[in-house]
TrEMBL record:
Family affiliation: Belongs to the sigma-70 factor family. ECF subfamily.
Pfam families: Sigma70_r2 (PF04542), Sigma70_r4_2 (PF08281), zf-HC2 (PF13490)
Residue intervals of the RNA polymerase sigma factor 70 region 4 type domain: 127-173
Name of the protein: RNA polymerase sigma factor (Sigma-70 family)
Swiss-Prot/TrEMBL keywords: DNA-binding, Sigma factor, Transcription, Transcription regulation
InterPro entries in the record: Anti_sigma_zinc_sf, RNA_pol_sigma-70-like, RNA_pol_sigma-70_dom, RNA_pol_sigma70_r2, RNA_pol_sigma70_r4_t2, RNA_pol_sigma_r2, RNA_pol_sigma_r3/r4-like, WH-like_DNA-bd_sf
GO molecular function: DNA binding; sigma factor activity
Limits of the Putative zinc-finger domain: 192-226
Gene Ontology biological-process entries: DNA-templated transcription initiation
Organism the protein comes from: Paractinoplanes brasiliensis
All copies of domain RNA polymerase sigma-70 region, residue ranges: 28-96
Residue stretches in coiled coil: none
């Protein structure tokens, strides 16, 4: 195998890292560090956390590559996705471990919202919203964001109020499943990828019976996917996408 140099494409460098060439990963690091730092500044609330977030992200991707997993192409996209998940899980962990003498913000009347976590959740909600069919986006915007009733928009959509209500319900369920799906890191094993692509629908009870049986069989033997289910089940309880509904049409 020809050893890649600093001008080699990312795909050659990724193959070299998998073959044990740590210097190739150093080249990837130098090539993509600036973009990673720029993304990190947009994700964290304290600039002092940027370097730690970048370092942890690169370390996780390196470990995946050395284990024979990780990206074959599109290194930067994979790196950015990993960073968003690292940031999200760090925010959740820090929120659980926070020590403070000021308990007033945890009063029931004034729930505390972590700014970095909230910003990332809005990004996930916006990405999910953009994946909905156009008609679903329209009815969801009219009902959930503008606050119009089905009767008020039925004429505009050329539907009966009951049909609008049914469509709005389907749109909300679709948004919920896609929102949860944003939290699932891409798996490497084909059956894990199949499972990961359907975890949002699984938690919402929207899988067809045949797929549901396949899901149950897989979860019985795969501990990693069971952990993913537990994580997004917790997210489903804590972070409904409708809280960020006024931001859903924006880029995050």
């Amino acid at each position: 195998m020809t050893m890649p140099d600093n001008d080699s494409p990312d795909t050659d460098l990724l193959a070299a890292v998998r073959a044990g060439d740590t210097a190739a990963y150093g080249t990837l690091y130098e090539r993509h560090r600036g973009a990673a730092r720029q993304l990190a500044y947009g994700l964290v609330s304290d600039p002092a956390d940027v370097d730690d977030l970048v370092a942890e992200t690169f370390a996780k991707v390196f470990a995946s590559l050395r284990a024979g997993r990780g990206p074959l192409v599109a290194f930067r996209a994979y790196l950015h996705t990993t960073m968003r998940h690292v940031c999200y899980h760090r925010a959740r962990r820090d929120r659980r471990l926070e020590f403070t003498d000021d308990l007033s913000r945890y009063d029931e009347g004034q729930p505390y919202t972590d700014p970095a976590l909230d910003r990332l959740e809005r990004t996930y909600a916006a990405a999910a919203f953009r994946q909905l069919p156009e008609r679903w986006r329209d009815v969801l915007w009219q009902t959930a964001v503008e606050g119009n009733s089905p009767a008020e928009i039925a004429g505009t959509l050329g539907m009966t109020p009951n049909a609008v209500a049914v469509l709005a319900h389907r749109a909300r369920e679709g948004l919920r499943s896609l929102y949860l799906q944003q939290h699932v890191t891409t798996a490497e094993h084909p059956e894990c990828r199949w499972t990961g692509d359907r975890l949002g629908a699984h938690l919402r009870g929207r899988l067809a019976p045949r797929d549901n049986n396949r899901m149950r069989v897989h979860l019985r033997w795969c501990g990693e996917c069971r952990k993913r289910v537990a994580e997004i089940a917790e997210i489903s309880e804590i972070h409904p996408p409708y809280r960020q509904r006024h931001h859903a049409g924006s880029g995050g």
